[in-house]
Amino acid sequence: METEYNINTFTGASFSIQNRIMRLVWGMFYLLLFRYSPKPLHAWRSMLLRLFGAKVGKGVHVYPAVKIWAPWNIEFEDECGVGNGATLYSQGKIYLGKRSIISQGVHLCGGTHDYTKKGHPLVTAPIRIEAHAWVAAEAFVHPGVTIGEGAVIGARSVVTKHMPAWMVCAGFPCVPIKERIMEDFIPVNK
To answer: What's the distance, CA 5 to chain centroid?
Structure first.
């Protein structure tokens, strides 16, 4: 499943003053009101994320120790969950589909640098985690990657390419291993 991405390359001062100010303000809100909020207060954290421009569906569970770079670049569909210690490095857009799971310690990295150019300009590309997908503990997902619907990414995998729907995938680099079969699940799209 190859998808064309809008890849952004930045040179010099990579982010506007407005972006930098918003990240500073977000950082203060994060430290004072998000990071140390009690674990069960998912609605509170969802409200804070919406306040900073995130699109947040119903029943979203983002735990307090999730590190979020720019909430305005993230879309959380209904009932998705992000575990403590995950990093949503949202320099590029990050989309989490309905009932997707991002386990503890996962790193979704929406930005990198072009080491082939002078000054190593910043390059951003969106990450899509489709509905019912699960990215297990401490996996790393590169910019521009789509994890297909219902896919499972094994713990500590390094995902550099798109992963297909309804497959169990793992490794460094991550590759599809076998089909994911769920006896009690009927996909909405089929």
So the answer is: 16
Cβ atoms of residues 101 and 135 within 8 Å = yes
Question: In the prediction, which pLDDT does 183 show?
Answer: 80
85-136 residue pLDDT tens: 999 999 999 999 999 999 999 999 999 998 999 988 889 999 999 999 999 9
Which pair of structure tokens corresponds to residue 105?
A: 């310690």
* Domain parsing of the chain, residue ranges: 17-179
Strands 111-113 vs 146-147: parallel, antiparallel or unpaired = unpaired
pLDDT tens digits, 124-173: 999 999 999 999 999 999 999 999 999 999 999 999 999 999 999 999 99
CB 51 within 8 A of CB 43: no
Q: Are strands 111-113 and 122-124 parallel, antiparallel or unpaired?
A: antiparallel
Sheet of 146-147: strand order equals: 55-56, 74-76, 94-96, 127-129, 146-147
- Nearest CA to 62 among 91, 32, 30, 92? 30
Give the C-alpha distances (Å, rounded to integers) separating 142 from 109, 161, 179.
Answer: 5, 8, 23
Q: What are the tokens at 174?
A: 């991550």
pTM of the model: 0.90
| Residue 149 burial (CB count, 10 A) | 21
Report how far residue 101's alpha carbon sits from residue 90's, in angstroms, rounded to the nearest whole number. Answer: 17
CATH number attached to the domain at 17-179: 2.160.10.10
